[in-house]
Amino acid sequence: MQLLPSSKLYHQGLILLAWLPGIVGLFLFPIIRQAWDRGLLVALLIVTAWAALSLGWGGEERRFKVLLYVLLAANAWVALAALDPLLLWRSVANSALLGGLVAWVSLVDMYVFEGNPWQVRAVGTGHLDHTILASHVMGALGVLLVFLRSDLAPALRRWAWLPACIGYLAFLLMSRSKGPLLAAVCAFAFAALCRPSRLLIAGLAMALALIGAAAVLMPEVVLRGGLSYRPQLLASAYEYLQLAPWVGQGLGAEYLLPVAGLPIEFEHAHNLYLHLAIQLGVIGLLLWLALQAVVLVQAFRRRSTPRGLALCSLIAFAGVSLFTDGMGPWVKPREEWFTVWLPLFLCLCLLAEKCSASADGGQAVIASNEAGGHEA
User: Fold this and answer.
1) CA distance 296 to 49
2) pLDDT of residue 363
3) Which residues of the chain have pLDDT under 50?
4) By CB count within 10 A, which of 108, 292, 330, 331 is most buried?
5) Residue 167 in contact with residue 2, Cβ under 8 Å?
6) Using CA atoms, how far apart are residues 348 and 278, in angstroms rounded to an integer?
7) Residue pLDDT, tens place only, 210-223
8) Strand 257-258 relative to strand 265-266: parallel, antiparallel, unpaired?
């Protein structure tokens, strides 16, 4: 997203490099079919089925294909995790490293070459042209980079990841998006609870101290924009929800939320959970939360590993950041996918590794037995 000029190229790249190879692999390699975790697959299919069913009483029928996009993307992640988990996690870590360096490029381009004043909120390169959603992407990748740096090449683990992380932090600060910043703090706080360490606790204490100092010394910057009409939007969305509280308006249903005193109306609730409730009803929201709970439980069980801890932190970041913006999950691949679907995809990858490890172990036993037979 940071390097491509349009979402069309991004979607075409996903189809060519991920979704189509994943489909081919699903039929050619039994290990991919075995790598799907049955419990998580059932939970995903139930949520997907309810979203599809909601088209029967409202919504936008064109959104049906988006349900297929999610399943194709999930299969692509499972396929790579089953066939080559080391390559998968190395790719995620390297992508996060590259993203942090490109974050510096976007800041230099915006404030140096374009000459924008410092008061202008930062946006990313490529088609990351929405300040808040770009901050969601930057925050999610930054969290992954911190905890997945052991999957980088040895030389990059020593120093290269740190400038990239600072690039993400600089972007979050210059975007002046309070939601993603709060989400980043919550992500590291949750990581410290999951697996306490001196480094995590010290980093969290430093972040809280910096936020406190900024609130005291620069309140006009920290509190800029107040709560951005979020309480009024929540109240307006809650009233709209009462029109069809249990089943919602249907997948992709359009609605407008008025805010008293403003001449404009907002196209969504700026809160993923209320947006889901409006479109899919309380039933759909509960099914979605149940799916997230399954992902969280699986990640928490693996919190002793860097990858499990990375997933725990990403879930915390996503859960908080989506309270302030986001109109997914049923949209074409775009910024929201990094907070809405990436935790699920990475969880599927962690669960698929067991199948991959078993297959590798079986191959090793077979090779050992064959070698023993030849020697005999």
Assistant:
1) 22
2) 45
3) 361-376
4) 330
5) no
6) 28
7) 667 766 665 555 55
8) antiparallel
* Cβ partners under 8 Å of residue 307, min gap 6: 89, 147, 148, 151, 346, 350
DSSP 55: G
What is the distance between the alpha carbons of residues 167 and 141, in angstroms, rounded to a whole number?
11
d(CA 351, CA 36): 8
DSSP structural state of residue 292: H
Q: Write down the pLDDT at residue 219.
A: 58
- The one-character DSSP state at 266 is E
Q: CA-CA distance, 255 to 258, in Å (whole number)?
A: 10
Token match 């740096």: residue? 149
Provide the token pair at 335: 């910024």
Cβ partners under 8 Å of residue 113, min gap 6: none
Q: Can you give the pLDDT at residue 246?
A: 96
Alpha helix segments (H runs only) across the chain: 7-14, 20-28, 30-35, 38-53, 64-83, 85-108, 131-148, 154-158, 161-175, 178-194, 198-217, 219-222, 230-241, 272-301, 306-321, 337-340, 342-375
Task: Report the SS3 class of residue 5.
Answer: coil
Coil, helix or strand at residue 249? coil
- Output the pLDDT for position 209: 77
Q: What is the rounded distance in angstroms from the CA atom of residue 58 to the CA atom of residue 346?
A: 32
Cα 198 from Cα 202, distance rounded (Å):
6
Whole-angstrom distance, CA of residue 59 vs CA of residue 286: 19
Looking at residue 196, what DSSP letter applies? -
Burial of 355 (0-12, 13-18, 19+ CB in 10 A): buried
300: amino acid identity, one letter: F
Give the per-residue pLDDT at 217. 61
* Residue 302 DSSP label: T
Longest dimension (CA), the chain: 88
The pair of structure tokens assigned to 16 is 């060519």
Query: CA dist 340 to 70, 277, 309, Å?
Result: 11, 15, 18
Residue 225: predicted pLDDT: 56
Dump pLDDT digits (tens) for 252-261. Answer: 998 988 887 7
